[in-house]
């Protein structure tokens, strides 16, 4: 029973390029969350998605960042025109169910470490 | 707004010592969940425990124990007889209602042989 998969594990981009981070949730999970961890910081929520829907994007920067979770395939976090400040670890988590059931555990992937040079 | 404070940025202990990591939280929700995660040097996040706001019983799992006190809004984590493999960053997190996880900034624990 595979856990949450993220790829790539490490990604290096030059300033101005695009970064695409992928997350495959655990089997049976239809909710995906993206978090960002800046160096020496805790994780900060970015966006919460269900299949084909963005539920909460209150933590997403207004520009250059977008996320999707299509009917088929992994969730994608896309960062356009990356800058040095985007260098961070990006974690994806998935859960089976949520809504008012705040007990539903989020299982985290291993993260993607983005370095912008 | 929800907030998690881990006042200890870094702690160093000698192997076999006991160590307590503090976590204080703020929330207006009456139902909420508290979590601890471990992040070893390899970088992944390892789930340690989840506790709901209605269950104030302390929990013990091997060398790990958790002390949840609603009166002081604290959810402290104690490692007994620490080992070098316990060296990691430990995060306390909170989730209430229909909200995402809110993490503290973490405490870096170094256990020295």
Oligomeric state of this protein: heterodimer
Number of helices, where a helix is a run of at least 4 consecutive DSSP H or I residues of chain B:
0
Order of helices and strands of chain B: EEEEEEEEEEEE
Structural category of chain B: mainly beta
Biggest interface between chains: A-B, 26 and 26 residues
- State mean pLDDT of chain B (0 to 100 scale): 93
Distance between the termini of chain A: 36 Å
Number of extended strands of chain A:
11
Write down the overall geometry of chain B. globular
State which percent range the strand residues of chain B make up.
Answer: over 45%
**Helical residues, percent of chain A:** under 10%
DSSP E strands of chain B, number: 12
Largest sheet of chain A: 7 strands, mixed
Which spans of chain A have pLDDT < 50 for at least 5 consecutive residues?
A: none
Globular, elongated, flat, extended or rod-shaped: what is the shape of chain A?
globular
Strand percent estimate of chain A: over 45%
* Poorly predicted spans of chain B: none
Structure characteristics:
heterodimer; A: 117 residues; mainly beta; seven-stranded mixed β-sheet; four-stranded antiparallel β-sheet; B: 113 residues; six-stranded mixed β-sheet; 0% helix
Gist of the model:
The complex is a heterodimer of chains A (117) and B (113). Chain A has 117 residues and is mainly β.
Walkthrough of the structure:
In chain A, β7 (65-68) and β8 (75-79) form a beta hairpin. The radius of gyration of chain A is 14 Å and the shape is globular. In chain A, strands 2, 4, 5, 6, 9, 10 and 11 form a seven-stranded mixed sheet that branches. Chain A has a four-stranded antiparallel sheet with strand order 1-3-8-7, with no helix packed on it. The model of chain A has no long low-confidence stretch (mean pLDDT 91). In chain A, 0% of the residues lie in helices and 48% in strands. Chain A is built from no helices and eleven strands. Chain A starts with a strand and ends with a strand. With 113 residues, chain B is mainly β. Chain B contains no helices and twelve strands. The radius of gyration of chain B is 14 Å and the shape is globular. Classes of the chains: A mainly beta (117), B mainly beta (113). The interface between A and B is medium-sized, with 26 and 26 residues.
């Amino acid at each position: 029973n595979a856990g949450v998969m993220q790829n790539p594990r490490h990604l290096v981009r030059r300033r101005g390029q695009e970064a695409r981070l992928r997350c495959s949730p655990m089997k049976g999970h239809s909710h995906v969350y993206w978090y960002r961890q800046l160096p020496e910081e805790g994780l900060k929520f970015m966006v919460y998605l269900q299949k084909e829907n963005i539920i909460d994007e209150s933590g997403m920067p207004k520009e250059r960042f977008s996320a999707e979770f299509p009917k088929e395939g992994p969730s994608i976090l896309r960062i356009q025109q990356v800058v040095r400040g985007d260098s961070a670890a990006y974690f994806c988590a998935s859960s089976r169910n949520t809504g008012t059931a705040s007990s539903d555990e989020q299982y985290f992937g291993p993260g993607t470490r983005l370095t912008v040079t | 707004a929800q907030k998690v404070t881990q006042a200890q940025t870094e702690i160093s202990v000698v192997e076999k010592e006991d160590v307590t990591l503090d976590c204080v939280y703020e929330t207006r929700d009456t139902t909420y969940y508290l979590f601890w995660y471990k992040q070893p040097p390899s970088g992944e996040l390892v789930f340690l425990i989840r506790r709901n706001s209605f269950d104030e019983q302390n929990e013990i799992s091997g060398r790990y124990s958790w002390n949840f006190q609603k009166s002081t809004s604290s959810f402290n984590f104690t490692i007994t007889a620490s080992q070098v493999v316990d060296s990691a960053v430990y995060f306390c997190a909170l989730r209430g209602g229909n909200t995402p996880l809110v993490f503290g900034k973490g405490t870096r624990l170094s256990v020295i042989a």
